[in-house]
Amino acid sequence: MRILISFIFLGIIIPYTTFGDYAEDILTLSEKKSSVNAAKNIFFYIDQDNSLQFDQISSPAFNKFTPWNSTDNLSFEYGTGSYWAKVDIQNKDDQYREWLVEVAYAPLDELEFYLVKNEKLVDHHLTGDHVNYSERPIDHHNYLFPVALENLESATIYFRVKTNGIVKLPVNLYQPWKYAEVNSKYEVTYGILLGILAMLCILSVVTFLPTRDWSYLIFPLPLVAKIMFTFSLTGHTFQYLFPTSPVMANMITPLSIALWMLGESMFNLYFLKTRKLSKAAFYLNIFGFTLSIATIITSVFLSYYAAIKLVTVTAIPFSISALTLGIIAYNKGQRIARYYISAWSVYIFGLMIFVGFATGHLPDTFFTQHALEFGDLFMAPLLFTALSKKYAVYREQKNEAIKQMLDMEAKAKETLEAKVVERTLELQEATTELEEKTEELETQANQLEIKNEEVTSQAEELQSMNDQMLETNTELEQINEEIAAQRDMMEIKNKKLEVVTKSLQDSINYAQRIQKTILPQNKDFDTLFEDHFIMYRPKHTISGDFYWVTENTKEDKVVLIAADCTGHGVPGALMSVLGGGYLDKIINLKKITSPARILIEMHQNIQSLTSQEDALMNDGMDMGVLVWDRKEKKVTFAGTHTPLVFVQNNKLFSIKGDRFNLGSNHKKIQIKEHSIPLTEESSFYLFSDGFQDQFGGDHNKKISIKRLKELILMLSQKPMKVQHDAFIKFFESWKDKNNEKQIDDVLLMGVKIKA
């Protein structure tokens, strides 16, 4: 009895003695508070040897948590242990509320989230930079975790952080609408920052074209590297560039800083012309090159912890060396260097503040968090202003050179005019001599004129004969010119036709690759069905028929779809790509597994895409949807103009699809679902009308649905691979009987499903 009383006493007293101090630190949530910072309500514990598990940490007997007691966000310097944090929350409203818990610090290797209600773990997520991005509960560059509380309900949130870098845990709770508002402003701000830096890059490249000054072409390189670094810190690079590669997502942070130092070193070499400036400036520039190359190598081959420590240590001396280069250049008479000095002074100021914030020596404020971005935002325009001033100096020098050239041209003109006067006098004397000689020549000319008349008479006769020959030659030349012009015109048209044909074929081949990428892979079918086949034969390079398969693991269902878009070739293929996208949204995103509901959603999506008069849509799309419920052991089917044929116990059954086209002008539609219980292994077949409509055979007729059903029943007991080969052989034999061409896209699928 005493033992029982002791246990009761301990059960009542210990919770109050352990957590009595915490009761006043519960974070209360209500509709009136759209967002709350949890810093002053957080308790923390540092597990230096990583020995404790969550069960131990969350135990009521564990009393080693320490209150943070600060409005600044939880932060620690570099460490190798596990950092635990907890915060107690309570919904003060009298109705159900949903909240988002945000940890707004992306560079954490591992972050575990635990939600405990009534001493039971109800939610748990493991995420972080060392975990694939797909593991995050909400798609966002920061860490977001949903929390739902009933009226007046309490809960405890635990975090476990393990990282090789600086530990920061800024925890905020938002109502969903408030977070959407805050996040949109955040993204727009970073978009503006990116836009400004991108605009400077473009202007710099454009200015390079007339000036051919390499500093303009190099200027965008460090800017691009800084953009990568900024968005690696915010988590955007992990979200958009390397969601499946945590190693690359971590490596890009120190690597982008190393590439930024390399780009700035190259820019200094060409902008300040350090080679000509002085030996000290050149060697200082080489020092920057050496630092950047060393950090590039360490960023690739060392651990993230070592690499980030190294770039943090080297960034400050590198920046100071760059500022020193600007001072040397200014002392050597380069006026534009004052903008360069201003840019690096502002940047170093922002860098020092950011390092102080990152290491925990400065308070966690909006300015300290974004000091580096502010530094970049001021540094880039100032450096571009320096480049612009350099171009202005270049134009002044060019104008001075042109002025000197014009002066030289004026002096040369005066000298030339004096020489012209001198030459004119000499020519007048020569003219007098020529006149005397001309009189002598006139006498000789009279004698020659008599002889010339005789020659002229003979020449006239020859001219008459020559004129006749010229007329004949002219006619022949005109005929040859017409023939040559026609030949040239044909060659031009042939070349244009070849270009158009090649361009069209390239586009079709590219569309084929896109369509193959969208269609499910064989490995997807192998995972979902033990025995299956797909006969897929486009009439042209690309097809209007397509098939689709997916699995809903939560409901333990498999969805198999065959679709026939209106037309074939490019129009049909375009519709098949749109259809695949809509199916992904309906089934994978909306989680709809009812065949009839899938068809209705598909119909509404196609109708919203375009009107019935649109030439692309024409009659719309036919589709058959088969859903295998593995838990309930049944198959559900619905279709529009697409039948389902299946064989059970050596008997063939057929279910017709509703007489209705997806995308037609029907507003209200009803589609019937058919349920098929699985009592034994059954074979199911979905197909478009391309197989049955093929002409050929002895009498050049269609294969027909009847003949196709007979063929299915005859082959149904054989393995699907054997059936696949038999269907292809029959189709080719029927088509080639009268040398018929394939008239439509062909799709025929078969799967075997066990009870």
Automatic annotation (TrEMBL):
Looking at the UniProt entry, the stretches that span the membrane are 188-209, 216-235, 247-270, 282-304, 310-330, 337-358
The residue ranges of the 7TM-DISM receptor extracellular domain are 40-175, 188-388
The species is Flammeovirga agarivorans
Which protein are we looking at?
SpoIIE family protein phosphatase
Mind telling me which Pfam families this protein's record contains?
7TMR-DISM_7TM, 7TMR-DISMED2, SpoIIE
Lineage top rank: taxon: Bacteria
Give the organism's phylogenetic lineage: Bacteria, Pseudomonadati, Bacteroidota, Cytophagia, Cytophagales
Q: Which UniProt keywords apply?
A: Coiled coil, Hydrolase, Membrane, Transmembrane, Transmembrane helix
Q: Which residues form a coiled coil?
A: 391-496
Q: Where is the PPM-type phosphatase domain?
A: 555-753
Work out whether the entry's keyword set contains Transmembrane helix. yes
Q: Which GO terms describe its molecular function?
A: phosphatase activity
